[in-house]
Design goal:
Helix content: over 70%
Number of helices: 8
Strand content: under 5%
Distance between the termini: 34 Å
CATH class: Mainly Alpha
Order of helices and strands: HHHHHHHH
Radius of gyration: 16 Å
Structural class: mainly alpha
Number of domains: 1
CATH superfamily: AhpD-like
Shape: globular
Length: 155
């Protein structure tokens, strides 16, 4: 063993990993119950993974977003979603909430961003997006700290 070898958190404490996955399933169910479509949740997962710089999660969630019907164009412009008209009001509000939950900007900016999103999202959707972002942030951290490798895929 070398000190530079990855330490896989998910393999070292499988009970905690299983608990995180169970939490994620509850969050997914809350999103579905709130009327958020799977494609949007995957779009949020991609955006959060972009912000956090998690290559492993980006690889997985871009593929899942495409499989869910997301377009390559919208994924390509996702880092600059505010500069396009490709995202509807609900998607834009959800992206704003996910970004605020991930980056935790200063209090004034965060409160303003979340308040404007609440004008578009129902309480259940607003809650579900925040929980989805919290879950994705946790998965990003596990993958980044574990140095999960991105394997070459044949598409």
């Amino acid at each position: 063993m070398s000190l530079s070898d990855p330490f896989f958190l998910d393999k070292s404490d499988t009970d905690s990993w299983k608990a995180l996955n169970a939490f994620s399933l509850k969050v997914k169910a809350a999103g579905e119950a709130a009327g958020l479509d799977y494609r949007l949740i995957e779009l949020l997962n991609v955006r959060i993974s972009q912000i956090n710089g998690c290559a492993f999660c980006l690889d997985m969630h871009v593929r899942q977003a495409l499989e869910a019907g997301e377009s390559a164009q919208r994924i390509a412009v996702l880092p600059n979603w505010r500069e396009t008209t490709l995202f509807n009001d609900v998607e834009s509000a959800a992206l704003a909430v996910a970004e605020a939950t991930t980056t935790l900007p200063d209090s004034e900016s965060r409160i303003a961003e979340l308040a404007s999103s609440r004008l578009v999202l129902s309480d259940a959707q607003f809650s579900a997006v925040q929980w989805a972002a919290i879950a994705m942030n946790a998965f990003n951290r596990v993958s980044i700290l574990s140095q999960h490798p991105v394997r070459v895929r044949k598409y």
